[in-house]
Amino acid sequence: MIKPLIRWSTTLGVAGAAFLSWGAIENLIAIALPEAEVLEKLDPVPVFTIADEQGAPLVASGEDEAKVAGVFISQTDANEFVNQLKTENPELAEKVRVVPVSLGEVYKLAETAQGDKDNANALNFAYVPEEEAVASAKIIGEANEKPYQGGVPLFVAKGGEGKGYLTIEQNSQQVIPFFFDKKQLEEMVNKYKEQEPEIAADVDIEVHPLEGVIETLETGSDETLEKIVLVPSTESIQFLQSVSPPAPGEGEATPEATPEATPEQ
Question: Which domain covers residue 196, as residue numbers?
Answer without folding.
Answer: 19-34+131-243
